[in-house]
Amino acid sequence: MKTNLATQFKPNPIYEKALEHAGKMSVKEICQLYGVEERKLRRAACYRKISLNFGRTLVQKQPWHLDEIKKLKSLSMTNTAFEVGELLGRSEASVKGKALQLGVYFMKVGENSPLAKHSNHDIELCRQLHEEGLRPFQIAEKMEIEISHLCRVLKFEARYLEIGVMA
């Protein structure tokens, strides 16, 4: 059976004095200085809503605005989470968290991928030439693309996620 924290905790002047050092000293140092148990000190801090973080600045969370969310979605296709954070004035962790919440991924596709050898324009041109009746080996020769890659492109097995589709 769980007991309520308010009924379980009894005020103690030693903990009151110890919690004055919260954020200025580590928890272990405070416990050694006042001779108290870490578990009880943490419980007292939790009851009073006092942070025991030492060496870290507490950051106020800013709400995300609609225009920032739109920028995050559009920039995620061409930039890393760190770069998006720099542009939006937010931390990388904040950007990654919001992207995860929105289902946005920082995966580079098409010509934005670091592995891309051909531009989106070249790929689309290959597909148009194939629709007009040119054979894959003729297109591969003209465009200087490997035949195996071209066949995958023409079957939409490769480069099927284009920029317009993802936005």
How does this model look, in words?
The protein has helices spanning 5-8, 13-19, 27-34, 38-47, 66-75, 81-88, 92-102, 120-131, 136-143, 147-154, 163-166. It has 167 residues and is mostly helical. Helix 8 (120-131) packs antiparallel against helix 9.
In terms of quaternary structure, what is this? single chain
> Strand pairing plus helix content: what structural class?
mainly alpha
Count of all domains: 3
**CATH-scheme architecture of the largest domain:** Orthogonal Bundle
CATH fold description of the largest domain:
Arc Repressor Mutant, subunit A
Secondary-structure element pattern, one letter each: HHHHHHHHHHH
Terminal Cα span: 51 Å
| β-sheet strand percentage | under 5%
Précis, in short:
Helices cover 54% and strands 0% of the residues. By secondary structure, it is an all-alpha fold.
Salient structural properties:
Arc Repressor Mutant, subunit A; rod-shaped; 167 residues; mainly alpha
How are the SSEs placed, and which strands pair?
Blueprint: H1 5-8, H2 13-19, H3 27-34, H4 38-47, H5 66-75, H6 81-88, H7 92-102, H8 120-131, H9 136-143, H10 147-154, H11 163-166
Helix pairs in contact: 2-3, 6-7, 8-9, 9-10
